[in-house]
Amino acid sequence: MSDQLIILVIVWPLLTGVVTSLLPANKRLMTLWGSLNLVALNGLAAALLLRVVSQGTLIYTVSGWNRDPADALSLGIELKANIFCGFLSCLIAAVALVGFLGGVCTWDRQVGHRLPHFLALFFLLVAAFQGLCLSNDAFNLYVMLEISSLATYGLIAFGGGRAYLATFHYIVMGTIGASFYLIGVGYLYIKTGTLNITDLADSIASQQLSKAFVLALAFLVTGLLLKMAVFPLHFWLPNAYTYAPDATSVLVAPLSTKLAVFLMFRILDDLFIGVIPKSLVSWSWAVVFLASFGILAGTSLSLAQRDLKKIFSCLIVAEAGYMLGGLWLSDSRGTIGALFHLVNDAVATLALFLVVIAVQQSVGGRNLHDVKGLFQRSPLTVLALILVSFNLIGVPPSAGFFSKATLLTGAVASGHYQFVVALLLASLGNLVIFFRIIEVAYFNPIVAEEGESALSLDGQRAGALAAAVAASLYLIGLSSYNIMETFIKPVVSL
Amino acid sequence: MSFFESHFIYGFFVALLMIGLYGAIAKVNLVKKLIGLSIFQTAIILFYVSIGKKDGADIPILPYDHGHSGHMLAPMAEQYINPVPHVLMLTAIVVGVATVGVALAVIQRIYAEYGTVEEDLILEKIANS
Amino acid sequence: MRGLAILCAIVVGGILLWGSTDFPAWGRLDSPASVNLSDQYIEHAFEETHVPNLVSAILADYRNYDTMFETTVVFTACTAIFLILRLPLGPLARHRNTTHVQAARQRLPRDPILEMACRVLFPPTHLFGLYVLTHGHYSPGGGFQAGVILGASFILLAIGFDLRAILARFPEGLFVPMTALGVLLYIGTGVLCLVLGGNFLDYEALRVLAPGISKEMIRSHGILIVESGVTLTVGSVIFAIYANLVSRGNQMEGL
User: Fold this and answer.
1) What is the pLDDT of residue A276?
2) Nearest Cα to A324, choosing from A299, A292, A280, A300?
3) What average pLDDT does chain B have?
4) Distance from C-alpha of C164 to C-alpha of A367, rounded to nearest angstrom
5) What is this model's ipTM?
6) What is the pLDDT of residue B55?
7) Domain around C55
8) How confident is the model at residue C89, as a pLDDT?
9) DSSP single-letter state for residue A69
10) Statement: residue C123 has pLDDT above 90
11) List of E strands, A12-162
12) Does A168 touch chain B (CB under 8 A)?
């Protein structure tokens, strides 16, 4: 029975999403319904992780078409949970729950009568993320990628105003990205005749690496670079995430690009296992160079902004560069660092966007000059901001310190010094970015006006949630050795 | 059979894909951009369907007379074309339609917001506001 | 922008052309795609599922997990469009079912020939949709195709008469739950299989409910059940998308 956990983790939010669209737009009912289901999802994901930890990688065949005999090609679609997939699945569930709770206070302002449809898409997006994390079929991953994109389009666009144009750009880039991925899968299919990732990997390893395979890899990677918003292909992201409703960005921003990174890891490490370092070293130089450039570009873009949400959105572009570079360092420490950074960055981004909600609720705006006096109104929000900023700068013992340290050792060992320089410069950039915000928030008190002393309870709550999430970064940092040894190292085969 | 004869079909797919990609990037009108995107997706569908082709093979539906003449003969693999790409493309078509639907809804909202669907005019309006 | 686009198109196209020289010749019987998995499906799918249309068999049995998400894609798109376009029900909308149908009739010029043609075409179109669904096991067809035909029949009425006229008979309160019901039927079948002790969407588990049926036939029936769910969703979603797009989300006035 415990084998069924892997499908339940996907189907539970899917069913919840479909049922939610039929419920009335009652805020209290929805809060209860949503949080109960997300708690259940967290339980299922935790049980799945326990199952994977105790009994090893779980392969599940949907619709019961098991391989028969054992060495035959898979007829049906397989799901696969190795130890990192299980961990990531838990992370998705946890981020969804916290993001959901953090977003509740913005519903009155931004969602209104559209609550059932909003929450339906929210849950469908969670289901798609879980599916992306657990699927073992190259084409099924495309379908999951598209569901997550479609749900995201809807969730972003209903922010209104400039969100519409930003969504349209996102649709164009997202569709081109997914189509490139589909071309890559087609190239693999025409050369191997199968779609299952395990079978594909066997087939690729047994054939000579001809140009169709190289091109398949190129298209898969380019498609994911688009989804990941690495620097020259990033322009859709900052606007889309900035103008999205707050309740959306708190789920989409932490997870969307990270799952593209995870897919790229699957492609490099599961699909083209052992092929990359041998024959494509020149490629990896180019990609690491792109990543280094992307880190610097993202950080400088972020420096130029004055809208808090846009500052954080641009930081996502920079963070994508860290993980991309780490994956392509052709060094196992780089890959481990990238995967650990994925976990760290998902939590840090969640905290940042919770801070945005807290700021918006406490001072009613999110521009740099609105933050004035934030410390007086919501000290917890400022605390969260300080904690996250230390993480992004890389102060020990935060998770960011350990992920960057691992990435740096990997980069030095493989001789990618431009990546080292980019990482260090970006840390410096982050220091400036956050010092600017914290300075305004802490040292520029406002003169309290008459009758304006009432503190926003929602703002306080969101601030406390953000601070709790930010504090968990240090827990992750302190247990970084254990996380890397137990959850990440066993799946990195480089 | 010469190399050109056996591979020219892939050229069609590439040509269609180039047209679509050009339209999706170069056009200023959002609806035209969307049309380019649709052509781009259709090109990929064409590519997949062409993978399934087998010389001299029939569509992958076995003849069946609802049990009037006893058992059917076991099908021979070379008699029928590969059904898998067709299955995959059914999914891709649906995804394409869904994307176009959502994109049209967004375009409609953009038009309500700015009174135009020409991207340069919209950007001008945003810059002025 | 234009230069960049030309450059992009040429680079991508050139790379693709260069790569396609590595492909097996078109239509070759021994190309990898036509040999490995394809042969197994062609030779065994019928004896394992009793569905002569191999595309249906693979779509709704071997790869039914994909198809479930395909249906979800349709549902997601519909929900996204509602989220983006649908305006709140105003005071006007409440009376839509009664007065506005008449009001619309008076205002819009009516065309008896067009209306009659649509009236006559509607039932056969519906019937054809159902035929395509149920006969999808034996001939080209299946859930998606049937759904599109059913959806198109409603759109035909909406064009021939007026959006309000059709919404009075097929209101939002009916077709929106239908979109969800179709997906629920699909997922519910999967969950039922799971509860009865099989894997998710493993129709063989359903034999507990119908012991007299062979395990091949139960797969065939399972395919029909999920395809019906697909039809329900696709048909109502097509109409829902149409109704929202033509009326700019207020579902009052359209083509």
Assistant:
1) 59
2) A292
3) 86
4) 45
5) 0.93
6) 83
7) 46-85+106-246
8) 61
9) S
10) yes
11) 58-61, 78-81
12) yes
pLDDT at A455: 61
- Of C19, C22, C201, nearest to A63 by CB-CB distance is C201
Query: Which residues in B lie closer than 8 A to residue A139 (C-beta atoms)?
Result: 88, 91
Asked if A150 lies within 8 A of C70 by C-beta distance, the reply is: no
SS3 category, A426: helix
Contact (CB<8Å) B33/A154: no
Query: In this predicted structure, what is the pLDDT of residue A70?
Result: 66
User: How far is the C-alpha of C170 from the C-alpha of C159, rounded, in Å?
Assistant: 14
Give the rounded percent of residues in chain C with a pLDDT score beyond 70.
89
CB B19 within 8 A of CB C13: no
Within 8 A of C244 by CB-CB distance, chain A residues are none
Residue A369: give the domain boundaries: 2-491
Q: Are residues A126 and A95 in contact, defined by beta-carbon separation less than 8 angstroms?
A: no
Task: Supply the angle between the helices B84-114 and A163-192 in degrees, to the nearest 10.
Answer: 170
Tokens representing A415 are: 């001789």
Question: What's the token pair of residue A113?
Answer: 């009568």
Phi, psi of A137 (to 5 degrees): -130, 125
Task: Taking residues A366-390, report their average pLDDT.
Answer: 85
- Residue of B12, B27, B61 for testing the chain C interface, max C β-carbons within 10 Å: B61
Determine the pLDDT at residue B19: 93
Q: Who contacts A401 (Cβ-Cβ below 8 Å, separation ≥6)?
A: A391, A394, A395, A477
What is the count of structural domains for chain C?
A: 1
Q: Which residue of C has its CA nearest to B16?
A: C13
**Domains held by chain A: number:** 1
| Interface with C, mutate which of A62, A135, A149, A170 (most C CBs under 10 A) | A62
From 1.10.10.10, 1.10.287.3510, 1.10.357.10, 3.40.50.12780, which CATH number describes the B3-57+80-128 domain? Answer: 1.10.287.3510
Closest partner residue to C84 among A113, A157, A191, by Cβ?
A157
A213-261 residue pLDDT tens: 888 888 999 999 999 888 888 888 988 999 999 899 999 999 999 999 9
Question: How does strand A78-81 pair with strand A58-61?
Answer: antiparallel
- Residue C96: pLDDT band with limits 50, 70, 90: very low
Whole-number CA gyration radius for chain A: 22
Are the Cβ atoms of A150 and C77 closer than 8 angstroms? yes
Q: Report the residue of chain A nearest B122, measured CA to CA.
A: A165
Contact C249, A113 (CB under 8 A): no
SS (H, E, C) A234-302: CCHHHHHHHHCCHHHHHHHHHHHHHHHHHHHHHHHHHHCCCCHHHHCHHHHHHHHHHHHHHHHHHHHHH
A61 Cβ under 8 Å from any chain B Cβ: no
| Residue corresponding to tokens 């699927």 | A135
pLDDT reported for residue A65: 81
Among A2, A63, A67, which would you mutate to test the C interface (most chain C Cβ atoms within 10 Å of its Cβ)?
A: A63
Give the pLDDT of residue C94.
47
pTM of the model: 0.94
* Average pLDDT over every residue of A281-305: 87
